[in-house]
Design goal:
CATH topology of one domain: endopeptidase fold (from Nostoc punctiforme)
Number of helices: 8
Strand content: 15-25%
CATH class of one domain: Alpha Beta
Radius of gyration: 21 Å
Shape: globular
Largest sheet: 6 strands, antiparallel
Length: 286
Amino acid sequence: MKTRILRISATILLTVAAVISLMLLSMAAIEPKAHIYPDYPVADLDPVLRKDSFTEEDYNLLYLQTGLGKPAVDEIRELYGDWRERLLRFQHNFFRKIDYVCEKNSPISREEAIVDEQGNYAHGTELAPVHEGYIFVTKSSHTYGWRNGHSALVVDAQNGKTLESVVLGQNSSIQDIGKWTVYPNFMLLRPKRAAYEEMQEIALTALELLNDIPYSLTIGIFSPKSADRDKIKGTHCSHLIWQAYSYFGYDLDSDGGMIVTPKDIANSPELEIVQVYGVDPRSIWP
């Protein structure tokens, strides 16, 4: 009897050890993918930047070299007299090497952050101009070997504030936008069909209905994916964005499943790219 118990205990211990080893190995395997460098060379942008207007081919080159989509390029040109120098800084940051660390942010998940030579948090790039209703997505959050990602909704562009459902056990809250350039990768997106006025209204609705809401991973599984405005009981990062936009007739869930993930938001055909960093601009989240 004692021998049988020992065998069972040994089997359990070996199984647990094997599972833990697999989880640790899967986590190590995805670390190099926290920041993807361009697999093509730096191009001379001077011939394009000398032009008075850009062709679609020019916009595509600028996107591949800077990570800036057409909306960002046009707005930077409109806002700044030194727009050429600014675009070249974006290009430099898009190609330059970085260091990052992986840190625990909950009992089951981790996220990466860029650090400088002294190990302090550092910004990888500048941000394109942002507006209320813009959406941030990153692949830098992961649960062991699964890059579940994270997302946020810009609710106060002037003061640099987002609304986010950050982590299990915490209610959704206002966050500082500056943290997004500390991630080794991010995507900044905007709806293709919405005017700025509508995006502002969506952001205000999110602040009114989706701030200080408990974090829930099971939205869409054990409770309805969409809730009436006065019946929101829980949310998570990508659901918060999906729910806010759904009240205005937009479905940002690219695969239409029971749950909506940051990857689903990133791949939504309803959205266009404002800026990407640390991802392959040709396929931002395959």
